[in-house]
Each structure stands twice: as structure tokens, then as C-alpha cells.
Amino acid sequence: MARELTYRDALREALREEMYRDERVFLMGEDIGAYGGSYAVTRGFLQEFGPERVRDTPIAELGIVGLGVGAAIGGLRPVVELMTINFALLAMDQIVNHLAKIYYMFNGQFTAPVVVRTVEGFGQLAATHSQFFENYFAYVPGLRVVAPAVPKDAKGLLKGAIRGNDPVIFIEHSLIYRNRGEVPDGEDFVLPLEGAEVRREGRDVTIVSWLRGYYLALGAAEELAREGIECEVIDLRVLRPLDIETIVRSVQKTNRLVIVEEGWKSFGVGAEIAASVQERAIDYLDAPILRVASVEVPMPYARNLERLVVPNKDKVIEAVRAALYQRALVPVAR
Amino acid sequence: MTSTVDGQLPGVALTKSELLEMYRLMVLIRRFEEVAAEQYALGKIAGFLHLYIGEEAVAVGAIRAMDPEDHLVTHYRDHGYALALGLEPRRCMAELFGKATGLVGGRGGSMHFADASKHFWGGYAIVAGLLPIAAGLGLASKYLNQRRVAVAVFGDGATNNGAFHEALNFAALWKLPVLFLCENNQYGMGTAVSHASAVREMYRKACAYDIPAEQVDGQDVLAVYEVTKRALEHCRNGNGPYFIEALTYRYRGHSMADPETYRSKEEVEEWRRRDPIVLFRQKLLAHNVATEEELATLDRAVEEAVAEAVRFADESPEPDPATLTQYVYADPITVH
């Protein structure tokens, strides 16, 4: 059985269930308690679980993650929240030099199973609050990087992250919290932290994306279907470990690949996917692999300029047409 | 001063065997480090090698005061702490040699000793990075209603870093059982405290967070022991964190690559006159805790143990290449 939930409620359910299931699970982050969370994911949790398990912190991202690392080594299951991914830069030393290394560097003697929840997005928030940094984390061996697009995955992957033994960077998106979707019933609905999913089958072009990009891909696919172009849409779900095989299998069928990402194109997740796909399937490609990405400028505030920067459905449709040689092959966004 | 009872020191609640063990550990650390430097010169040890010579009293005094259940995280100058905890010299030396039999299988080297069975959660090599981790260990202890204190060992250089201030604030705000043990050895790499810190006394920085703090002579192992004992009780009894600044000195360079252009020979000689091992030895002899012969026997045993550690390290196998990608993730990965 399944119910329809919003992405936000799916996350809330996952956190609540795991907190009831395991006393060692606790939450720590800026304004998650009395304020209720800046995206209301933890609203009411302070009242329900108390201040020991729902801990409002100072604005000190490095400390938040670092305390999470220590608490995890000390036997707890911390779910720490970085209010937005932009602030994760302040915590990078703890994430990259400590969290990601502890299991390997100390020869497997102990792990630091910390879940770092954070969120990216945009909405006239200007240059320092509108960035997409999943590639920074996906670069690092030792981290798992999860980026769910649909409520089912938001719940199942978050539960999987909390129950797992590896550090997880769990990236949400501010513009999809209200999106709805089916979520299976039951507290034991837990998903493993790997594997992409083909969400729409098609023969002509493969579109790969994640988070909000997935909805752009789906929208483009539906529109193109009206004129007989059938896109296969893959939701990546997890960026590290990267499930290249699922993409390669799809490309072997469609022979064309478009990647939709909200980050800047250069040195991004899309670049990694393109490189890995050509290593394994260059003979199957009938067109260059194309990327739809953000224009490479710091994000401007003005609404019209911001709209020019980020990917949208029309840009995805253009890229698909380019991959089909229905229009000139020009750089999609630079 | 004369002792009232042979085998004891006035005002010190340690038995003769405990005192002699402290002496042995200090000599062991000294000898281990001297031999490590020789092995480095021979090319058996590579990378960074940060020696603890001159600072032995801090590790030995502090570890003696700790409970076996207490947590420990340290900076990268960590050999002394490992040895003071009683970890085998041969496994420590093997780690320096990059061998499979090392403390962490040759994966960490000099800077990343660890032993989970002793709750020694590692030496960390990004200055100040261990401090939030220590606060997190304290949080776990408090959350789980344990009576364990998290001991964080760091240098004077760390106190100028943001992670230090975040960790102290968290620990004080949440009254976490964390002992901040600052080894002020006068230099952050080659930069003198006076050139790096607006406040010359490290312990005074704790007052910004209302953390009780004091300075101790880090060349006096018993003084370090006594203050650590008191500080741990403070933390253990739910009073929140405590801060100790141990004044000490490293005789050798920051690492083996250090040209030591930043300090004078006279300064080093000045500190050597208050050598922690010589001071303790004199005290033990003056109060008839031990005889010259007893101490010489311990010295010889240390000499042999370190020689054996080198043989063991030298003869041990390198890590198996098949283990290269082991322990990146704890849970399975099936996608490619």
C-alpha cells in the first residue's frame, strides 16, 4: 500500500520513524528546534522529542559537523543539518578531512555514520545563497552523496542513510518540498544508498538528472512526446556511488544523452557522467553528449537575470532537439 | 624535602610502581623518538615525522590521570600519547615504517595513530580539527549518561583557529565533559606564540567561554598528573569542560625537515636544563622512591624494547596491495 505525501512530509516521516526506532538518533542544526527548521522539515520536533534530541546550535557549521563526527564515533547516530549547502563550505574541513577519512585512515577500526542533511535551490537569493555544490562532495571517496527527487526516495533514502554505517551528504532542494508522490507504507520501507532509476522509458534520447532537474527532464519529455520524440528519463537519486551502468544501458538503446544539472557546467557532475559514458559506450553514441547547466556567473538577484542563469524546460527541449540534430549543435549554456 | 615513607613522594597519591611506570613511559617515549629519528635518517621512515622529545611529561602525566573509559583525541604529534596509553612500541614503530602490522595497518603513519580498544580515536593532522570531534565525543558521553570525559590534546597553534573557538563554545554552552589540554610548546611550526597569538597565555582564551582554566608546568609530570586528575573530576561530575595549558617545549624541530632558523640554540639549552625526565629522575632519587640501579634497569629494558620494535617493524610485511580499496565504505556498493 502507498499514500501520497509531499517531499517535505516524506522527510519528516523518515526522521520521526528513525527517532522512535533508535534512541541514538538525534538532530542538530541551526534553527531546527524552536524556529521549526528554515524549510519546516523539523517543525514540531522539539516539542515531540525534547531539546536533547532536537538541538538548536550556534551558527557554527564546522562545529556542527565536527560534533556530529565525534558523537558518531562515541556511539550516536547524528543527523546534522546545514541550513543550506552554501554554508557547507564553512564545514568542508570536517566533511572532507575528517568525516570522509576516518574509516579508511584508521584502518577500519571505527566509522563515523553521520548524516549531513542540507538543501540547495534558488529564488532571488543572490550570489551566495543560490549555489549547487553536489559535485564538491561527490568528488570525495568515503562519502555517499544522495540527492532524491521524489517523495518515495526522500523517505526511503533518508532512512537508509540513518541506518547505514557510512557518512552521507543528503541533499534536498528548496523548490521541490511541496512536490507530491506515492510513498509506500510501513516503517520498514528503507532504500539502499545506490542506484539510478529509469522513471520514463523512451527510445530516442536519454535524459539524466536529479533533484529539480529531474522535473525539468520529465516536463521536457512529456512535451516532446506530443510530437513523437520519446525520451528516456533517468533519475540519478544517488551521485556517489554513481550508477553509470544504468545510464550506459539506456544510451546503448537511445544512442543519445542529455544531462540536466543546475550547477555550473565546468567541472560538474555532468562532466563526470559524460566522461564515464564515453569510456564505456562511445561506439553507441550518435551525437555528442550535451549538458544543460547554469550559466557561469555568480547568481544575480534580479528575477529576469536569475531566470536566464538556471536550466528550465525549454533549455532541456532545445538540448534534446540538438542531440537529434533537429537544430544546430551549439553550446547549450556557458 | 625528604620523604616520610620510602617508595612514595610527599603529597602524591601514587604508588612506587605507578611512579616507576611513569618514569619508564617517559624514557620509552624519549628513546622511541630518538630511534625514530635515526630510522628516518636511514630512510626507513618517510613523510612527516613530528617528534615529542621534551614534552614527555605532558602525555604521561595526563594519561596516568585518565580513566580507561575516557575518550582521547590528539594532534598529529601523537606517538607519546600512544605509548603513554600502553600501546605496543613495536606496533607504533611498524606504523612509522608503513607496515601491515602497524597500529593502523600502515594507512596513517606518524600523524594518525589510533586504537579503538583504548578509546584513542586518533591523531589528527589538520590543526584544530580534532577539537569539534572531542566536543562531539563529550556530547555522546553526556547523551548516553556515561561518566566518560573526552580529552582533547592540541597545541598552542590550534588556539588561533576558528574550530577551536567553535568547539569551546559548544562545550561550554552544552556543559559537555571535555578536557581541553593545550600543549604550549611555544611554536606553531616555526612561528613563535608571540607572533601568532594576541594573547600569550593560552589558558586565558578559555575565559571567553567561562571555562575554568589553569596553567601548569608541563615539564613536571606530577604537576600535570595532579591538575589533570582535578580537571577530569570537574568534567566527570557534570560541571562542563575544563581547560589546561601545559607549558612545554620540543627539543627537536617541528618535523624532520625543520631547519630551525626561528629560535636560538641558547633558548633550546635553557629548556633542556629543565628536562622532564631528568627532573623526575632526580625527584625519585632524592625521595628514595627508587635507586640508581632500579632506574638503570628500567632504562635498559626500554632500550631493548625499542630495539625490538625496530626489528619487528623492519621484518614486518608491507600492507597487502589487495587491501588498497578496503575500508572506504562500511556498507556494500554494487553499482559501477
Q: Could you characterize what this model shows?
A:
The complex is a heterodimer of chains A (334) and B (336). With 334 residues, chain A is an alpha/beta fold. Chain A folds into 2 domains: 2-184, Thiamin diphosphate (ThDP)-binding fold, Pyr/PP domains (Rossmann fold, 3-Layer(aba) Sandwich), CATH 3.40.50; 197-323, Rossmann fold. Chain A has helices at residues 7-21, 45-49, 61-73, 92-99, 102-105, 134-138, 151-163, 211-225, 244-254, 269-281, 303-309, 313-323, and strands at 2-6, 25-29, 54-56, 77-82, 115-120, 144-146, 168-173, 180-184, 197-200, 205-209, 231-235, 238-240, 257-264, 290-294. Chain B is α/β, with parallel strands linked by helices. Chain B is globular, with a radius of gyration of 20 Å. Chain B starts with 15 loop residues before the first helix and ends in a 21-residue tail after the last helix. The chains are: A alpha/beta (334), B alpha/beta (336). The interface between A and B is large, with 52 and 48 residues.
What are the defining features of this structure?
heterodimer; A: 334 residues; alpha/beta; Rossmann fold; 2 domains; 12 helices; B: 336 residues; six-stranded parallel beta sheet; 11 helices
